[in-house]
Amino acid sequence: MNRRRLAFGATSVALWIAMIHLGALLFETVVMYPNIFHDVPASLELSVEFMAAVGPHDFFAPVGALSIVASSCAIAASWRFKRIRNWLLVGLVVAILGEFVLSATVFWPRNTIMFSEGLAVHSAETLKTTAKTFQRLHWLRVGATVVNAAAVFRATVTLAQKRPS
Length: 165
Fold this sequence. Notes:
The chain has five helices and no strands. With about 160 residues, it is an all-alpha fold. The longest helix has about 40 residues, at about 80-120.
């Protein structure tokens, strides 16, 4: 198997995972979040009950990790193709900063406040403020996921052309 085919295969897998991740995030944003945040704090409590068996973290943590691994493999397989490598590096850096770092520093603490501690520890006003901040900052995560998917898409399309460099 030549390097170009290997790079195209690895990049295609990374693209597939990035698109699944993006689609799931958009679904969560458009379908789930209006229900989760429509009447805070009551809707937060209902959401905890609803997601007792499986929650978003059960999907996004492994898919996010898989996306980073797939992008890293695509970068390794595409290393000799500078334009491809650069697009993949941009996507990977944005994914790490916009997903993992942002989640760890912004979203996980707010998830604890809203869904673990709730009214037992915080006032209704604190939960409402936390929910509003969460929703506003969530658009940064959506933007990062879009940029990552677009960068991997661009790398895949460029690699599919006859002469990537």
